[in-house]
UniProtKB/TrEMBL annotation:
Domain of life: Bacteria
Pfam family of the protein (one): GGDEF
Record-level Gene Ontology MF annotations: diguanylate cyclase activity
Species this chain originates from: Paraburkholderia diazotrophica
Positions of transmembrane segments: 15-36, 48-67, 73-94, 106-126, 132-153, 160-180, 200-221
Segments forming domain GGDEF: 262-392
Membrane among keywords: yes
Classification via CDD domains: GGDEF
The protein's name: diguanylate cyclase
EC number, as in UniProt: 2.7.7.65
Biological process (GO), any one: cell adhesion involved in single-species biofilm formation
Catalytic activity: 2 GTP = 3',3'-c-di-GMP + 2 diphosphate
Length: 396
């Protein structure tokens, strides 16, 4: 079979069909995002904007694909302005998602420019090249700005980096389309012209709308999963490790220390007369003292230490590879810092600390906690606001 006959049998590359098919999925994904966003915590922001943007981009792409079969004011004005609004909502959603101030005025300005430009180039001075040039300029700005937001603020998230990379590709292709408008052979090409660059532009735009929508959904799900994981290992009041997470940290540190050889030290810290504080000042003040104590102690601990709320007003600190004298000195630093009144809106308070230290092979959490608890009671019997180290220190 000759190459010419083979080419004649190849199916035509229909841009309208590509756009129609690829625009349906973002619309469906937007409905999924709307549904999921209702169950998201209030501190995960921007998902509703992402969903709205995806739906508007999807509907706008469908209107663009139906150009010639629907009214010009829909396919020229509404469709193009809808693309600006949809991509702008994506940008605003990402800024909210990362806790940044949304660029609403910037998007509003682009919408005004888009409405004026599309109206002028459609009815006042009709020009397909003019519409293409203005839309390409505006979309390059929205894609480029959104790309910067995702790549700068989404460090550490593979999903955010993926979305940022897709936006970078689309911004580059859209910017290249601006350049082609100054090339005579390309400037008068229509939306569905058969030239290679127009195929590349429309195909990447169609695929980008789908991949970005999916990527944004995954980013929201990743944030939700991380928050749920953190909540399962964190004390909700103080933000410290809870007992379950602390036990896991102890097991990991014990295994590492047993391989390398060394000691494990455990502090149990109890806030003195805490029941009296609650009875006198109220539980709200008591909670503020707990969070104040957690913040102040966390600032003093070495990076390799583990700090948890053990229960009630009792806290635990695990210090891997710390010698008894080092653990005792660290406990004294904590005690002296706590007895200083730093927040004048809170009543003064003190703490008692019991310290246990032993070789990793013997340092089960049960044995460490037992010895540290005995030392803690010794500190309380000794008048409180003091440090006691266990008599059962097991050295290497």
């Amino acid at each position: 079979m000759s190459p010419d006959r083979y080419r004649n049998r190849m199916p035509a590359f229909d841009l309208r069909t590509v756009i129609l098919m690829s625009s349906v999925m973002p619309g469906l994904m937007s409905l999924v995002m709307f549904s999921l966003s209702r169950g998201f915590p209030t501190n995960i922001r921007g998902v509703g904007h992402w969903a709205s943007g995806a739906l508007i981009v999807s509907v706008s792409a469908i209107m663009l694909a139906l150009r010639g079969g629907i009214a010009d004011w829909l396919s020229f004005l509404v469709a193009n302005v809808g693309m600006i609004l949809g991509t702008g909502l994506w940008l605003i959603g990402s800024q909210l998602f990362f806790g940044r101030r949304p660029s609403r005025r910037f998007i509003a300005l682009l919408l005004i420019v888009g409405i004026i430009a599309m109206s002028w180039t459609t009815w006042v001075q009709p020009s397909a090249a003019g519409r293409t040039l203005w839309m390409s300029l505006i979309l390059t700005l929205t894609y480029g700005t959104h790309c910067v937001v995702m790549l700068r603020l989404g460090r550490g998230s593979n999903t955010a980096l993926f979305v940022g990379s897709m936006l970078l590709v689309q911004a580059a292709v859209t910017a290249a389309r601006v350049v082609t408008m100054f090339t005579p052979s390309w400037a008068n090409a229509g939306l569905f012209s058969a030239d290679l660059f127009q195929k590349i532009y429309l195909t990447t735009s169609a695929l980008m709308s789908l991949t970005v929508t999916v990527g944004l959904l995954f980013a929201a799900m990743d944030r939700l999963r991380n928050q749920l994981e953190q909540q399962s290992f964190m004390d909700p009041l103080t933000g410290l490790l809870n007992r379950r997470a602390f036990l896991s940290a102890h097991q990991q540190e014990r295994e590492k220390t047993m391989r390398a050889g060394g000691l494990l030290s455990l502090m149990l810290i109890d806030l003195d007369h805490f029941k009296h504080v609650n009875d006198t000042y109220g539980h709200a003040t008591g909670d503020r003292i707990l969070t104040d104590f957690a913040r102040r102690v966390a600032d003093m601990l070495p990076e390799h230490g583990h700090f948890a709320r053990w229960g009630g007003e009792e806290f635990a600190v695990l210090l891997p590879r710390a010698q008894p004298d080092e653990a005792r000195e660290q406990a004294e630093i904590i005690r002296r810092r706590v007895e200083r009144k730093e927040d004048q809106s809170l009543p003064g308070y003190t703490c008692s600390i019991g310290v246990a230290c032993m070789a990793a092979a013997d340092a089960t959490i049960e044995q460490l906690a037992r010895d540290a608890d005995e030392a803690l009671y010794g500190a309380k019997r000794g008048g409180r606001n003091c440090v006691r180290i266990s008599d059962h220190v097991i050295l290497l």
